[in-house]
Amino acid sequence: MTAHDKNSTIRRAIRASMSVTSDTARINPDTTWSAIDELNRQTWAQQLFAAAHRFGISQSQVEADSPDLVEVHVRAHGSDVWQRADANSLIAALDSVRVAVKPREPPHAPAPLPHDVAWRLPDGTSWASALQQWTPALKAATYAALRQRGNRFRDTLVQAFLRERISGAKHLKMWATTLTGSIMQPYWHLDDAPLARWILKARFDICPTEHFVRSYYRRLDDDFRRACYCCGRIRTSTPDVFWPETLPHVVLFCAHQCQTRLREKFRADLQRLSTHPDVAKVLAQVGSPTAPDFNDNNDLFTVFQLCTGVGPAVSALQAEPLLGAANNNADATILREWPQYLRNNMRAKLAVAWMRPLFDDWLAISRDPRRPELPQQSPGYCLALLVARHVRSIFSARSSILSTQPLAAAFKRRDRDSQAPQPQPPPQAAAAAQPAPPNSQNTGSLVPAQGSLIDAASRETNAQAAFSSPPES
∠112-116-122 over CA atoms, to 5°? Predict the structure, then answer.
């Protein structure tokens, strides 16, 4: 509002609203009249004070109608150095002038913006004119400053939410470990919406696994008893104890030959993509970070999730149980209670450092119409497309496996629920228990549908009919 006419309708309305706003509403604009049935009592000025408080703008600046958001820079004629100007600065007619977003506090804190943070004004523009005339440059700088402050406030809320998800909540816990803040995820730019939805499902851990489905449909509260019907028993010597079907289990550990084949093909396709000259060209601009080891489950799952971060706090992500998973010789009933996959955050950060330049290059091409490349030809797009097709293929294969008799009937009855024994109690408290009859293992095979191969020369535009829709469990 700083550059509008003092007598404009909007300014006169705000001044009138301020005159009837109580001191309590000025001091505590976020909490005064904040109940749902009291919002109609809030004045425009109170809502303006509340928004300014969230954006880090003081009440006095709002009342004086002079928010301190931008600053003026001057470069003397013939010089290459920009200097900050103030009301006492003398600006010559040939001096270059620009208006810029005021840096964050403290001064050394980084404040990246997606576009330039300074906009040029005509040479010789005075300091007063630069801040009082609503020029396109001042408008752009003001909006950029507000956007920056708004993003900063929103990211504070996002960080708190991510920490809450990681520390104790079950839902969205896996998703919270795939990013570091409030940023637009690259896969949103995929031009194939059904494929993008598969990535969303994988990141939010809502793919049709028993771990997700049995949380809602035919609910089974014991996570470790939500058995995988594509695998055999954990140990042949222990009847009817199976691995829980979680997303990491399906992606990394499921022993069915079809899933194993798809997994190895996914590793090979990723390796082929990582050695492509276009990938090396993009990575060379940021110091050529080391490519992940796709034979390592930690690196593979990090790439599978298209992580843009490792969560808001690495220390919080390492508070994972290690007892059963670390001992492969433990009893099968103990093994199934502990996660098969435990992320190594240091390795995950290296994998993210390899992916981020590819995604940044993809988004830069999408945003800049002057660049000759097509977004669909960028390595970042090819990586996201490869991952999306793999997510779709493994769950389409799972649907086919579970529709093959005799496994289909056992899965429909959920035979492995009733026959799965409880963990053995300590010897001093153990009671005699009747062992459950062993369940027949799946011996059927499924020839996987041919997956697509990503390269810079050709790409498939139509998915195969077998993969046309997400399977239902």
Answer: 145
- Are residues 236 and 129 part of one domain? no
Q: What single letter denotes the amino acid at residue 364?
A: A
Averaged pLDDT, 423-447: 40
Alpha-carbon distances, residue 290 vs 201, 286, 355, 363 (angstroms): 28, 11, 10, 21
Same domain? 141 vs 287 = no
**Residue 133 pLDDT more than 70?**
yes
Domain boundary among 132, 166, 200: 166
Q: Is residue 255 located within the same domain as residue 173?
A: yes
Indicate whether 118 and 76 sit together in one domain: yes
In a domain, 117, yes or no: yes
Separation CA 307–CA 356 (nearest Å): 9
Tokens 């009592």 appear where?
41
Q: Domain range holding 40? A: 1-67
pLDDT in tens, 66-123: 788 899 999 998 888 899 999 888 899 999 999 999 886 654 444 444 445 789 999 9
Are residues 189 and 248 located together in one domain of the fold? yes
Of 67, 96, 113, the residue at which a domain comes to its end is 67
Kindly state whether residue 425 falls inside one of the protein's structural domains: no
Residue 368 domain-assigned? Answer: yes
Distance, in Å, from the CA atom of 237 to the CA atom of 335, rounded to the nearest integer, reads: 14
**What is the total count of domains within the chain?**
3
Same domain, 285 and 326: yes
Of 390, 368, 187, nearest in space to 273 by CA: 390
Residues 10 and 93 in one domain: no
Residue 87, in any domain of the structure: yes
**Which residue is it, tokens 């600065």?**
89
Whole-number percent of the chain with pLDDT over 70:
80
